[in-house]
Amino acid sequence: MAKEKYIIELRNLTKSFDGVKVVDSINLKIKENEFVTLLGPSGCGKTTTLRMIGGFEEPDEGEILFEGKLLNPVPPYKRNINTVFQRYALFPHMNVFENVAFGLRIKKLPKDEIEERVEKMLRMMDLEKFGKRHVDSLSGGQQQRVAIARALVNEPKVLLLDEPLGALDLKLRKEMQIELLDMQRSVGITFIYVTHDQEEALTMSDTVVVMNEGHIQQVGTPEDIYNEPTNRFVADFIGESNIIEATMLEDRKVMFDGRVFDCVDTGFGTNVPVDVVIRPEDLQIVTDPEKGMIRGTVTSVVFKGVHYEMLIENEYREYMVHSTLMFPEETQVGMNVQPFDIHVMKKEGYG
Amino acid sequence: MKKLAVRIYMGLIFLFLYAPIIVLIVFSFNKTKSRGQWAGFTLDWYAQLFKDRLITEALYYTVTIAILATVISTIVGTIAAIGIHYMRGFGKNLLLNINNIPVLNPDIVTGVALMTLFISAGMRLGFMTMLIAHVLFCIPYVILAVLPKLRQLNRHIAEAAMDLGATPSYALRKIILPEIRPGIISGALMAFTMSIDDFVISFFTAGNEVSNLSIVVYSMARRGVKPTINALSTLMFLAVVILLLIINKKSGEGEELLL
After folding, report:
1. Boundaries of every domain in chain A
2. CATH number of the CATH domain containing B142
3. Which of A264, A290, A283, A287 is nearest to A336 (CA)?
4. Could you report the per-residue pLDDT of A197-206, keeping only the tens digit for each?
5. Minimum mean pLDDT among A72-76, B146-150, B214-218: which range?
6. Which residue of B has its CA nearest to A107?
7. Would B116 be classed as within a structural domain?
């Protein structure tokens, strides 16, 4: 059986700043040509992890492997990895062409080859008219593309991107997400992408790595992460969710709000306290409270464009519900939920 | 009406500030030795200046020391500024404050302190001690001029260069230094200005054999103010003004310099 080929492997990677463990024993394997996103709130260690892969921070413990070889002792300027930095870090005293050519000039490639590769890269990035322009005179989106071009022109095996779209406005960010994705598919380079924007992570990635407080919480496809969060933190961080403390009575039976619900989860044991996640769009409102599994009163209605976001309160808790139908405040309603939309998680705090 | 009042007020302030220097300049062209009367235009005093061996020698020392002190303090100060910039926490603040002390310290204290140090170290006061003193008091100004430029840099710019294959020293030469060049140049010009117009510290550290222009002016003035002093002072004033104009133009390209 052929072993799967990993381009980057992190083993027990640990890093502390001022005695605080920012990254705590992380293990991760990244495949060739994969688009991996490290996702988490600020301070979760995602950027530090990226910087250790780039060589800008030295791990306190643990190993980084690149194509199976230990990368730790290799200085950043000898790694076959390039980075797109937060706020780009372009060289302001050079024009666009020279910025992109910087890495190739260091490699002492022949002049005409440098010119050819830079021109090609600028064309690919829609920047061919800007070669002579000063980087300060470019818009945010254009600077962003220069930063990507400057990294990609070196044909790295792995491209690290540290919140590359953070400084752009929403519309441009969406456009650039699609562009980046196309680019990654066409050049066939492994992307390791850091963001705190869960929507961005779900849109672009093959694999999402959710991090919090220096630990990896979950690794999975965007669908896995959204539909099958492993714990409260992931469920809470990825999209909106109702997280309910419940008791797993037996396989496929979970109890909360004074009622037993059918579900599809098994293997938790009997009478075990668990957390249950129900996404707001998975609760169906019925007008007749008697026909709902859960009854409650609408306490707030907010129009969100595609749907209404309503808060529905019963004696136990408040549910967030997304629905295209609007039920005015003070209305008594019932709510139903399908067994496969009840997701049961082990109770383990955030660890 | 209001505008006029503002202008008159401004005019008065500038008159007050510059009246002494204007009088000095005017009398450097006065034909008689009397300081109260205008007796016609002459350039004699300037001509006499350059015939005076004491003064030409002092000019030579002033310029030599200024150039050497500028070069040395600019190199040392720039390296120090880069070091301080990449430090963190308590040590950085401490160093920044230590750096500010010589700037705020009264010259007379610095001068006496340096003299005591040199003598207790068994050094003969002269060209070398004066040069060392000038280098010392110029370094903080260079650091103060270079640091703001470093702060303007993107934090990751050196890393970006290394990421693209540059060794640390290549990144320093090709990326960091070109980026902070305006700061280095204004630091150097400030150091040069400070060195040229320093009197107090030079007076204590130069000893008997060497003197710069300020010391010569001072010792001449003690024997009575001759019009040649006016001429010499005028030239020194002009030199400093020209330097200041260059500094302002240079720093205007970046950010305002604290003077």
Report:
1. 6-232, 240-346
2. 1.10.3720.10
3. A283
4. 999 999 999 9
5. B214-218
6. B165
7. yes
Contacts of B162 in chain A (CB under 8 A): 55-56, 75-77
Task: Give the count of domains, chain B.
Answer: 1
Both tokens of A60, joined, read 């306190």
Which H or E run contains A298? strand A294-303
Residue type, B231: A
Instruction: Quote the pLDDT of residue B251.
Output: 63
CA A329 to chain CA mean position, Å: 35
Domain of residue B124 covers 47-253
Nearest-Cα residue of chain A relative to residue B153: A89
Note whether B156 contacts A82, CB cutoff 8 Å.
Answer: no
Q: For domain A240-346, is the CATH number 2.40.330.10?
A: no
- The per-residue pLDDT for range A97-147, each reduced to its tens digit, is 999 999 999 999 999 999 999 999 999 888 889 999 999 899 888 998 899
- State the distance between the two ends of chain A, measured CA to CA, in whole angstroms: 34
Q: CB-CB: which of A78, A89, A106 is closest to B160? A: A89
Would the pLDDT of B143 be above 60? Answer: yes
Cα–Cα distance measured from residue A145 to residue B61, given in angstroms and rounded to the nearest whole number? 55
Nearest-Cα distance to chain A for B118, in Å, is 42
Share of chain B above pLDDT 90, in %: 49
Domain A6-232 listed as CATH 3.40.50.300? yes
Q: What type of residue is A211?
A: M
Pair of tokens at residue B122: 């068994």
Inter-chain CB pairs, A–B, below 8 Å: 65
